[in-house]
UniProtKB/TrEMBL annotation:
Stored Gene3D superfamilies: Medium-chain alcohol dehydrogenases, catalytic domain, NAD(P)-binding Rossmann-like Domain
Signal sequence annotation: none
Organism listed in the record: Paractinoplanes bogorensis
Name the record gives this protein: NAD(P)-dependent alcohol dehydrogenase
Residue ranges constituting the Enoyl reductase (ER) domain according to the UniProt record: 10-309
PANTHER family linked to this entry: ZINC-TYPE ALCOHOL DEHYDROGENASE-LIKE PROTEIN C16A3.02C
C-alpha cells in the first residue's frame, strides 16, 4: 500500500510517499480503508522529533514507526475476532495508528460511526484538534463566559472558537492578520491582531494554544477566580518545548484561586460524538502525495483552521 513515511527526523522535506506492507490487525483491532487523514501538530512533533523528550516515545535515534498520522476517516475493511462494535463497510472516524496511508489499524474505542452529514474530509479534521479544544474549554457553566482564545486561527483554536460560540460565550480571538476573516466566520465576537495590538481585557477563561507567553502575562488578563488552559508552546525550549511552561503552571497552581490547567487529551467516543454538531473548519484538502506541502503550511502558520489529506479510492 502507499503511505507517507519519514526515515529520519526533520522538516517537511523528510516526508515522502512509499510502498509499505499493509498493517496486520490483532483480534481486538480493526482495519480501516482511509479516505481522509487529519494534519495536526501531533504529526508535526512525530515528523520533527521535537521537543527532544518526545523521542523517548517516537524512537531514538530515528523514528520507530515510519508512517505519520493519527486522525482519519474511512471505511472498515476488516475486523478482529473480538471486535463487536463495527463490521466491514461501516463508515468511521477517529484516531488510529499511522493514518497517512491507504490502510490503518485502530482500536474500536477510538472510533465512532461517521454521521451522514459529514464528509470524510470534515470528519478526519475533528478528532485530535476537536477533542483538545473540548477539554481546553471545559464544561459549560450555564451562563455565558468571556473567553480569550490565543492562537484562534489554528486547528485547536478554530475548534475552540466554534465550540465557545456555539454555547453562547463572548469570544475574543487572537490571531494574525491573514486569518481574521476565517476566525470571524468561526464565531468570534471580538478579534485582536497580535501583530498590531496588545492583549487587553479581563476574562473568565483564557485558552492559550499559540506561542509561549509567560504565565504572569496570561494571569494578569484573567479574573481572580478565572481559568487558564494552556496547550502547545511550540516556541519553548528544544528539549522540553511547551512542557517547560506546563511544569511552571503545575507548580504555581496550588497557590492561587485561579484555575490553571494543561489538559492531556486522547480523543474518546464521547468527545467525537460531541463534536459532530459543529461545523468542521476544513480550509483545504490535499492529495496524500502532497503531505509535505500540507505540513509545510501548517508548520509555517499559514493554515486558517484545518487541512486534511485525501486518499484516492
Amino acid at each position: 500500500m502507499k503511505a507517507i513515511v519519514r526515515d529520519v527526523y526533520g522538516d517537511a522535506d523528510v516526508l515522502h510517499l512509499d510502498d509499505v506492507p499493509q498493517p496486520e490487525i490483532k483480534p481486538t483491532e480493526l482495519l480501516v480503508r482511509v479516505h481522509a487523514a487529519g494534519v495536526d501538530r501531533g504529526a508535526w512533533h512525530a515528523m520533527t522529533g521535537l521537543p527532544l523528550v518526545s523521542r523517548l516515545g517516537f524512537g531514538l535515534p530515528k523514528p520507530r514507526n515510519r508512517i505519520v498520522g493519527l486522525d482519519l476517516a474511512g471505511v472498515v475493511e476488516a475486523v478482529g475476532a473480538e471486535v463487536t462494535d463495527f463490521r466491514p463497510g461501516d463508515e468511521v472516524f477517529g484516531e488510529a495508528s499511522s493514518s497517512w496511508a491507504e490502510y490503518a489499524k485502530a482500536k474500536p474505542g477510538r472510533l465512532l460511526h461517521k454521521p451522514a452529514h459529514l464528509t470524510f474530509e470534515q470528519a478526519a479534521a475533528i478528532p485530535t484538534s476537536g477533542a483538545t479544544a473540548l477539554h481546553m474549554l471545559g464544561p459549560a457553566t450555564g451562563t455565558p463566559q468571556s473567553v480569550l482564545v490565543i492562537g484562534a486561527g489554528g486547528g485547536v483554536g478554530s475548534f475552540t472558537v466554534l465550540l465557545a460560540a456555539a454555547r453562547g460565550d463572548e469570544v475574543t480571538a487572537v490571531c494574525s492578520t491573514p486569518k481574521i476573516d476565517a476566525v470571524r466566520r468561526f464565531g468570534a465576537t471580538h478579534i485582536i491582531d497580535y501583530r498590531k495590538s496588545p492583549l487587553t481585557g479581563s476574562y473568565d477563561l483564557i485558552v492559550d494554544i499559540g506561542g509561549n507567553r509567560p504565565l504572569s502575562a496570561l494571569r494578569a488578563l484573567l479574573k481572580p477566580t478565572g481559568t487558564l488552559s494552556v496547550a502547545g508552546g511550540e516556541n519553548g525550549g528544544r528539549f522540553l518545548g511547551g512542557l517547560e511552561r506546563n511544569l511552571q503552571l503545575f507548580a504555581l497552581s496550588p497557590f492561587t484561586k485561579q484555575k490553571l490547567r494543561a489538559p492531556i487529551v486522547i480523543a474518546q467516543r464521547d468527545d467525537l460524538a460531541a463534536l459532530t454538531s459543529i461545523p468542521s473548519p476544513v480550509e483545504h484538502a490535499y492529495p496524500l502525495a502532497q503531505a509535505a506541502t500540507a505540513m509545510h503550511r501548517l508548520a509555517t502558520g499559514q493554515v486558517a483552521g484545518k487541512t486534511v489529506l485525501t486518499v484516492a479510492g
